[in-house]
Amino acid sequence: MKKESNHILSTTGIAFRKYPYSESSSILYWISSLGCIKTLAKGARKTGKSSFAPIDLFYECELTFYVPKISDLYLLKEYQIIDPMLGLRKDWATFLCSTYFIELVVQTAEERTPIPECYTLLQKALAFIQKKPVSLKVIDRYEERLLSIHGLEGGKIEQLMGQASGGGKKLWETRKRLVDSLGL
Fold first, then answer.
1. Of the candidates 44, 49, 3, which has an alpha carbon nearest to the alpha carbon of residue 21?
2. Which residues form the DNA replication/recombination mediator RecO N-terminal domain (predicted)?
3. What is the pTM of this model?
4. CA dist., res. 5 & res. 149, Å (int)
5. What stretch of H or E contains 61?
6. At what angle do helices 116-131 and 92-108 cross, to 10 degrees?
7. Where in the chain are all domains bearing CATH 2.40.50.140?
8. Mean pLDDT in each 10-residue stretch from start to end of the chain (184 residues)?
9. Which helix (H) or strand (E) holds 46?
């Protein structure tokens, strides 16, 4: 994390959600070493003169944003695409695994709480599954490392999912779809 002034921050992040905010703006959700953050990209949906390049899920970008004093919605100043991670879209299992890995971190971490170890683990896991096929071994190993980061080394994934909103029901459903897509 680099601090450029009292109210502007820069970090690297991976986009994991995107919603329209208005006719011309979008809200982008990012996971970064700073934690899970959401940014308002004013003018991002404008055609023609937009100051933002199109962005999609799983894009890894260098972000610069203004930090508000009271809101949890940051104003995106600029971003530079580092890696669009196109390999995560090569097949359904890889796409679903990417979603599961990201949501597991997002659902078990508090918003805007720095999580550098989780972010580093996520970056490595996403890079790995872009090159190698998804397997149950890869999923289990990711879950074990995430448990360890959360201080639950040797624990069961149920303990981590229990911290998620709704008891992790959505995460369990995603994990089941992922395992089913592997034919297991």
1. 44
2. 10-84
3. 0.86
4. 31
5. strand 60-66
6. 170
7. 2-83
8. 64 93 89 92 68 81 90 89 94 95 89 89 97 95 93 84 78 91 85
9. none
